[in-house]
Amino acid sequence: MTRLMSRVLTAAVLAAASFGINTVAGPSALPLVSAAYAQDAAEIDTSTIVEMVQGAEDAPVTIIEYASYTCPHCARFHEDGYKKLKEEFIDTGKVKFVYREVYFDRYGLWASMMARCAGPEKFFGITDLLFKGQSDWARAGGPNEIVAELRKIGLLAGVEGEALDACLQDGAKAQTLVTWYQENATADKVEATPSFVLNGNLIRNQPYDDMKALIEAELEG
């Protein structure tokens, strides 16, 4: 697994950089994460960030996943373990699943901003598309090419072009997301992705059968 803390980009770096990226729709600049929004993290209200949740609110087991959209290990989990987890435990009301994004780099941040653009209803569907196509969009080239690929995914998921561009230009939201991620990762002592918090206990990435055994032990307890 990739070590988290050695690769974390601070909120100040992400928020202060003006990338001047062109939209695929025209020549106008798309300044992702504008310098105009740079501010002290202590001043940011992270309560405005919506938790992305699947499953019954009163499920006996809660699992929080910390994952980066640019993390290959996370993509592998979502292509295999997550699908089994959803079928066996989330959809059956036994597990409440919370997904929290981790930002190793600006591309993962942009992907998160795009995924959240259409709200909770489409978030997990867009997340599936991002992980399924990770090897394509995350390696598309420079910032312009990656934004173009992310925009294609958003449009495919039914996000309107103007709304999508507005989401990608929302520097205040970008900085809030980074601060939110840092607060959560620090509180849960997350140092790698994917990481999971199972009923309050941090567990490492592991084969699905091993995770299943831990879930069943919680259910039996």
TrEMBL record:
The lineage of its organism: Bacteria, Pseudomonadati, Pseudomonadota, Alphaproteobacteria, Rhodobacterales. It comes from the Bacteria. PANTHER family: GLUTATHIONE S-TRANSFERASE KAPPA, THIOREDOXIN-LIKE REDUCTASE RV2466C. Keywords: Signal. Gene3D superfamilies: Glutaredoxin (3.40.30.10). This is Thioredoxin domain-containing protein. Residues 10-220 form the Thioredoxin domain. Residues 1-25 form the signal peptide. It holds the Pfam family Thioredoxin_4. It comes from Tritonibacter litoralis. InterPro entries: Thioredoxin-like_fold (IPR012336), Thioredoxin-like_sf (IPR036249), Thioredoxin_domain (IPR013766). Belongs to the thioredoxin family. DsbA subfamily.
